[in-house]
């Protein structure tokens, strides 16, 4: 079996891209790996660039820069703070990694001596030089502001940390005919139902895959979306046409707990 794997940077994150024969069994096995994702733009499966995954795919281990012990402890304390504030696991991971990137940039400088000028220098000499995205810079801003609010000894004035100007682009909206073509392109009833439900109810991908059978209220014609972004529940209207599609799908696939298993 021919498998090729190599490190890549995708959406400002270090990942390992993996190419292998297009076989359903292999795809199923790969999807079970932690945080394995498909990139439509790159047309490749990818997963986090970790030492474990590098060993698994026979990639030379990357030399990791040593981070000052005190800063390591600060990052761990920051993670605990975010967890106790009940931030989502994705937010904790994103903010702690952003903070680590910032603190490592000033690895030889005491945290309490880092000031607003250092933040500007980090923007200029790290983010702009590496051509990183505005969204990544905003993640760093969020992490820095939250972190420096939690410590007493600091030279940083949090209120003076500014955000980058955001681009104002017109949205690329698909026409009704284009939507119909996308929905009708699938002969597999499961995939067609998933796409139709996403479009009809305005669901995020994570919201779709976390739906349970009990979240479909056919009597009131609503979908209950639980613990979405911001840890909030919400409801979405369910059309009769989508309800019929769900019934046809259920007769064939017979899911037990999750709506799409």
Automatic annotation (TrEMBL):
Residue stretches making up the Core-binding (CB) domain: 72-152
Gene Ontology MF terms: DNA binding
Keywords annotated in UniProt: DNA integration, DNA recombination, DNA-binding
Pfam families: Phage_int_SAM_4 (PF13495), Phage_integrase (PF00589)
UniProt domain Tyr recombinase: residue ranges: 169-261
Protein's UniProt keywords contain Ubl conjugation: no
A single GO BP: DNA integration
Recorded family membership: Belongs to the 'phage' integrase family.
Name the record gives this protein: Integrase
Species for this entry: Pedobacter psychrophilus
